[in-house]
Amino acid sequence: MSEIKKDVNPVGDLPAPxxxxxxxxxxxxxxxxxxxxxxxAFGLRQKVDHVAVLDEGDIAFRASRGNFGLVxxxxxxxxxxxxxxxxxxxxxxxxxxxGLLQNITGLEVGLEQKGGLHPVLTDQEYEERIKFMTxxxxxxxxxxxxxxxxxxxxxxxLVPGIGPEVRGATWTSVDGVANPLKxxxxxxxxxxxxxxxxxxxxxxxxxxxxxxxxxxxxPHGVIKAxxxxxxxxxxxxxxxxxxxxxxxxxxxxGQIVVLERTRRMLHTPFSxxxxxDEGTWLIGDSQEEAxxxxxxxxxxxxxxxxxxxxxxxPALKDVRVVRSWSALRVMSKDGFPIYEQSQSxxxxxxATCHSGVTLAAAHALRIAPMVxxxxxxxxxxxxxxxxxxxxxxx
Length: 394
Fold this sequence. Notes:
The protein is of the alpha+beta class. The chain folds into three domains: 1-112 and 174-247 and 334-394, FAD/NAD(P)-binding domain (3-Layer(bba) Sandwich), CATH 3.50.50.60; 116-173, no CATH class; 249-332, D-Amino Acid Oxidase, subunit A, domain 2 (D-Amino Acid Oxidase, Chain A, domain 2, 2-Layer Sandwich). It has nine helices and 17 strands.
């Protein structure tokens, strides 16, 4: 796998922010300032006083800027029931996280948990979706929640304006959405209000542990901390090697089409189509194994996304496209998150996933306290990289 970044100063002679609130050894430090890293850092600050976030800035392969914003449980956990439980726990914690952020910053994050839909457009899709959901929830130890396959009439009662090709949709009460841009803004505003040192333009080139203290080498000096969390997405693979962690991640490109604002028509989101709280429409769900190529959009993929969206809600054919983008998801070998503490460098943790919005509450309110306690409990063992070694041995 090719490297993501070379060990050079990518920001040249640009001035970088200096620590404002603490100039000694931080209690905890997060490498990565996207949604995963910011959620973890916010949670850490609720437990300890001195927290820093080291971030590359906008030169990074930042999945947060391309996020669809689902807070989604439906369909999560096939092959790993523990992931179903983890996703459900985050969904349940989301109102607490949103409330904390609003109390600290005065900002809302667009959280809506009114249920979610996965549309099917053919009889074959209809039957396959029923089989998938039945198999998913029949797994031993799988978290249980209400779901229903809505027929066309039931779906039309919930979402007026459904297209004639739509056969139905699976519905659950546990799904929802948030606004990822508002979420990121709220987290970073909380950093300012709670004296978290957010240090952009600080890519980490090396990590050493000396006498229980981690020293992160950046183009603007060495930053020290007692605990460190790797949350830098695709760059976690390279950084993990510095602290004895093998983190097998790969990029998966997704593309999104954005339509202009309209009056609010869709209050229950689809997995591939949603209307934001301010009226903008998002169309998504592409999955491309395209390597480390960020920002590229392609008309064949965008046309496919748009075609399915219009077939789902024909009124969208008269709504103008205002922009489109692509971003790189952070995918492990099996697609599930990785949470682990280094055995050779205790105090170094990794948090990596491709569902940064869905899992933000779990990262802030569950992972962060575990980091401060200095150990991941047994319930987190399914997310260790040990699962990959077992598969190789088999």
